[in-house]
Amino acid sequence: MTDSTDTITYRSILRRDGVLITFIAATIGRLSYAMISLALLLTIQGATHSYAAAGASIGGYALISFFMPLKSRLIDRLGTKAVLPWLSLGFTLCVFAISGLAFENVDAAFPYIALAIGTGLFAPPLGPSMRAIWAAVTPEPAARRRAYSLDGVVEEALYAVGPLAVGGILLIAPSSLVTAITGAMNLIGTIFLVFSPTSRHNSMKSTTATASASSGWAGPFKRRGFVFLLLVLLGIGLGGGPLEVSLVARSEAVGQGPSVGYLFAALSIGSAVGGLLWGHYIREDRPRLHLAVLIAVSAAFGLMLVPTTNLIATACLLFCAGLASAPLLITAYVSSDGLVPEGEQREASTWVNTLNNIGVALGAATAGILIDRGGPALAFAAGAAMYVLTLIFVLIFGQLLSPRPVEQIPVSREGVGNERRAFPR
């Protein structure tokens, strides 16, 4: 039984169908991702005494993670239990091997690079899997939006806490042990997620395999609206990608390099606050309008950052810009659910993240070139300009974000909450 719109709260959602235990398990597993990059960097550099080897390992890990959508498709077709535990086991074994090599003082670069690539290859899609569970237990649009808001805010917090956790453990243990701990966390979180009551009751294989199998190799890319949404996410990533690099350059330019951490914190806090407020107050799904407004806010504050050199003023602007950050992804996730059939939602959710990450990576790389040529102001301006172009794109073609007709939604009679999947958008 679901809550009415007026009584939907974060607490009531966490009490549904035992989802709190599942969410805690997913959070433990996802914390390993917030820690792994720094842990690997420190472990491999310490063992090989080479930043080149450490950088190549981290680059290989990050690059191969772009296969995450294909792993999500495999889960959609074969089921959660058949795929997630084995992926996590492979991830953990690779991480343990890296830790073991470092403990034995092996200084050759190649084994670390190869194992780091293996770590990225096996990394289980825990975020998309958790969002698939949220979708199953929150058939009402308002509840799902709030669930995604909570999920996004917690994920934002994890990536702030992860590096701090690595630093704290390093006070009492070597970096190789920190690396091993991240692998253990991933496996423990994944196992508890897969075998939690909520995950079992929602029968991920039986509710999604048929729809996914019938979608062909193109999967969600057969839907024009979904392709359009990914292009929007790419533009958003390109707009936000220059931000961190530009902030570092701006801080160093004014002689306040160490303060850049506070600027990043202001952005993250703004994003967390924005996500919570968005989930609490927004009650209707209007993806075209919501994306346009949020992108416009990002562009406006991005432009304000161009001439601003005072770091206190910069922090205030970053907090305000961050208010739109988490809601952008929340809107994208909700819109993605409305554009693809049920059996493709996990893969679609993964593509949303992937295209945004590609945009951020390209934007950051471009920012470095622009900063060398014209300083951080030029990079800030380029990011804001990309937001403006994306806004125009949404205003012109945003009607493609209209959700699929209700009658096209596959309705399953199995699993908690799935009998109400055909909700209006």
UniProtKB/TrEMBL annotation:
- UniProt key word Membrane: yes
Q: Where are the transmembrane segments?
A: 20-44, 50-70, 82-103, 109-127, 148-171, 177-195, 226-249, 261-282, 289-306, 312-334, 354-371, 377-398
**Which Pfam families does UniProt cross-reference here?**
MFS_1
Enumerate the UniProt keywords alphabetically: Membrane, Transmembrane, Transmembrane helix
UniProt xrefs under SUPFAM superfamilies? MFS general substrate transporter
The record, for InterPro entries, names: MFS (IPR011701), MFS_trans_sf (IPR036259)
Q: Which GO terms describe its molecular function?
A: transmembrane transporter activity
User: What's this protein's name?
Assistant: MFS transporter
Question: What's the source species for this entry?
Answer: Arthrobacter terrae
